[in-house]
Amino acid sequence: MFGLRKWSTPVLRPAGPFIVGGVAVFYLVAKMQDAMINSDEYKNDPRNPAVAAGKKDH
Q1: Where does the sequence pass through the membrane (predicted)?
Q2: CA pseudo-torsion sign 45, 48, 51, 55
Q3: Is residue 23 predicted with pLDDT exceeding 70?
Q4: DSSP letter at 7?
């Protein structure tokens, strides 16, 4: 009764678009965050985490 069955339940195929969408959103948000941190408006702001980490390439 339990164990391997004749028809296994598909998991990755129906969830594939959601996984790809999640990865794309994660990547795009990370790129936007990096662009905003390195913008001229926040380049020398003391609240900028890149300044606090000691990045000198600003």
Answers
A1: 12-30
A2: negative
A3: yes
A4: S
